[in-house]
Write a structure and sequence with these properties.
The chain is built from eleven helices and twelve strands. By secondary structure, it is an alpha/beta fold. It folds into two domains: 3-243, Aspartate Aminotransferase, domain 2 (3-Layer(aba) Sandwich), CATH 3.40.640.10; 246-365, Aspartate Aminotransferase, domain 1 (Alpha-Beta Complex). It is globular, with a radius of gyration of 21 Å.
Length: 368
């Protein structure tokens, strides 16, 4: 982490200080109000609970510091993704999405955008480097892809997409703005599920959209207000609390993931290992450049579905859950959701447990 970004993190932790008066709470309060005192609509302040809330303001201020951009919060990552897409697309437009990215984005695109007259083209993440963006209105990318962990050169893709007249949206959920900065690399919007590492404790759904084009972000905010896709004040409070420890949690998670990935690579029962932090991984070229490190997600294969499920159920330090980025190490056999991966493929999200006890538990549960 550069000294400049370390200063960002320090500022994030004290972002409310300048506005505090004598006796004010250091921790932002939960403002559970749908209505606000409104003798006049011309003098500023909050208007109505669907338009804004002081609890959102606090977490959006944090996220704006992290992204170095204007930020709009949402009640889930998918709400953020939907807002970004509906704010940038119209009937007759062409949308490019990853065929190997988060599957719900594909479900949304096929089930709701296509019937509205949007031409949806799904291509593998590795094909973005050579894809023809001519005629595209939006190029939507996810890097590293979930769950395969393939990467694209964000700056190169953004430059080619812009030359073709397209907007570029990046899903940065797997990396967070601490480990990868798509807006700095030319993307128009970033979307993320803060449910994952930013909130970090698997107890809240949340998401955000960030961008540096004021008119475009205003359209995203208008979508939130019109669609009613608004976060709750308690959820905003929880995410604000989680973000305060994001940097220290990521440090442990990524460090442990690197150690565990190296040991999994040497295990005879493990094949198809993917972790960008390993020197021989196809995505390793991005580490130290657009990615700060290899992240906290590992993909690997066991012999078949039965062996994979047995491993997950036998390991006492792996939670069998469908999310990632939490304090608990979590594992899932992704083929059960229909992802185009082998039946024995496991996505492992490394948590904040001490690395050696975690590895001992994993090694004891592995076959053979």
């Amino acid at each position: 982490m550069t000294p400049e970004f370390q200063a960002h993190i320090a500022r994030l932790l004290h972002h409310r200080k300048a506005g505090l008066g004598q006796g004010d709470p250091v921790v932002p309060p939960i403002i559970a109000s749908a209505t606000f005192h409104l003798p006049s609509v011309q003098t500023g302040g909050h208007i109505y609970g669907r338009n804004g809330n002081p609890s959102w303001d606090a977490v959006e201020a944090q996220l704006a510091i992290l992204e170095d951009a204007e930020t709009v919060s949402f009640p889930s990552g998918m709400a953020a993704i939907a807002a970004a897409l509906f704010a940038t697309l119209k009937a007759g437009d062409r949308l490019i999405i990853p065929s190997d990215g988060y599957y719900v984005t594909r479900v949304l695109s096929d089930g709701f955008l296509k019937p509205l007259g949007i031409d949806v083209q799904a291509i593998p993440t590795t094909s973005y480097a050579t894809a023809d963006f001519t005629g595209a209105a939006v190029v939507y990318l996810e890097t590293p892809s979930n769950p395969g962990l393939d990467v694209v050169d964000i700056a190169a893709v953004a430059a080619r997409a812009h030359k073709a007249g397209a907007k570029v949206i990046a899903d940065n959920t797997t990396m967070t703005p601490l480990l990868q900065r798509p807006l700095d690399l030319g993307c128009d919007l970033v979307v993320a599920a803060d449910t994952k590492a930013p909130a970090g404790h698997s107890d809240v759904l949340f998401g955000h959209v960030a961008g540096r084009d004021g008119a475009l972000v205003s359209r995203v905010r208008d979508w939130r207000r019109m669609a009613g896709a608004i976060p709750g004040p308690f959820e905003a409070f929880l995410v604000h609390r989680g973000i305060e420890t994001l940097e220290v949690r990521l440090d442990r998670m990524c460090s442990s993931a690197g150690l565990i990935a190296g040991r999994l690579a040497a295990h005879p029962g493990v094949t198809g290992l993917r972790y960008p932090g390993l020197a021989d991984d196809p995505s390793h070229w991005a580490v130290g450049g657009q990615m700060a490190n290899g992240g906290f997600l590992i993909g690997f294969e066991l012999a078949d579905a039965g062996v994979a499920e047995s491993f997950l159920s036998r390991c006492p330090l792996i939670e069998q859950t469908t999310s990632f980025g939490g304090t608990h190490t979590a594992g899932e056999r992704r083929a059960r959701w229909g992802d185009a991966v082998p039946e024995g493929f496991i996505r492992l999200s490394v948590g904040v447990e001490p690395a050696e006890p975690l590895w001992a538990a994993i090694a004891a549960a592995l076959p053979g």
